[in-house]
Structure formats: structure tokens, C-alpha cells
Design brief:
By secondary structure, the chain is α/β, with parallel strands linked by helices. Helices cover 26% and strands 28% of the residues. It has helices at residues 31-39, 81-91, 109-114, 118-127; strands at 2-7, 17-23, 55-60, 63-71, 99-103, 131-136. The protein has a six-stranded mixed beta sheet, with helices on both faces. Helix 2 (81-91) runs parallel beside helix 4. The protein starts with a strand and ends with a strand.
């Protein structure tokens, strides 16, 4: 469920958990995932192929980063992102009373080029049982 929308830098969030989109191909050196990779998690840049719906998490520097595998560069692209983001969020081992900072998916260059439906993706976030604060720039 969406409890807040915030225009700001998610790296400065007061929340302990940060969730964001990554792709099934495992090439995560661009977009927000690229920023996480360069600042906090070098191994994220090239994870190798992953399945849609996988979640990769890493603890570091007072935050836990959750990479949600919810789109691909080919095939279905962003078509299943809304349902996948719901499943990924609900699978996180985060207490129900904690809010997860989540980056607005599909609004960046990669999402726009891939035809992401941002409003549908927001619906997927809203349908999650987890509390999320959606961050956008």
C-alpha cells in the first residue's frame, strides 16, 4: 500500500529499506540500479540472468537495498511489472509496520524507452500488503 509519495533523494530516506527495479538480464549499470551499484553495491552491475520475480537484497551502511527483478530489455519488457512488483514487495522480509522506500519504476529513460506504464506500476505498489513510500525526482 502506498502511504506517501516523496519528491526527493531516496538515498537520504529515513526508512531502513530501499526497493528498486532491476532487469532479468542482470545488466544493472544504468538508471537508479546503476547509481546503487556505483555507490553501495558494485556486484549489482552484473548479477547474471535472473527470473522475473526474483529479489536480491544487500545490507549496507544502515540501509537494506532490495533489487526487484521486474522487467526485461526484450520479450515482455515492462508488461508484467505491475503484478511482479506486488509479488516482490510482499515477499520481502520487512515487518508490516515498517515503511519501504521504493523508487518510482518506469519513469526514467530505460522505462520510457521500454514502454513502461507508470500508473499501472503504481497500482502494483498500491496492491502490496507492505507499506511503501514512493520516491521520484
Amino acid at each position: 500500500m502506498i502511504v506517501n509519495t516523496i519528491r526527493g533523494d531516496v538515498f537520504k530516506t529515513p526508512y531502513r529499506h530501499i526497493a528498486f527495479a532491476v532487469n532479468t538480464e542482470g545488466c544493472n549499470d544504468a538508471g537508479f540500479a546503476g547509481a546503487v551499484s556505483s555507490r553501495h553495491w558494485p556486484g549489482l552491475a552484473d548479477t547474471g540472468a535472473k527470473k522475473l520475480g526474483d529479489v536480491i537484497s544487500k545490507n549496507g551502511e544502515g540501509k537494506t537495498f532490495h533489487a526487484l527483478v521486474c522487467h526485461s530489455f526484450g520479450g515482455d519488457g515492462w508488461k508484467k511489472t505491475a503484478e511482479t512488483v506486488t509479488e516482490c514487495l510482499d515477499s520481502l522480509d520487512v515487518p508490516d509496520d515498517e515503511t519501504i522506500a521504493i523508487v518510482l519504476m518506469g519513469a526514467g529513460m530505460i522505462g520510457k524507452m521500454g514502454g513502461a506504464d507508470v500508473f499501472s506500476i503504481l497500482g502494483g505498489m498500491a496492491r502490496s500488503k507492505k507499506k511503501v513510500a514512493v520516491y521520484t525526482l
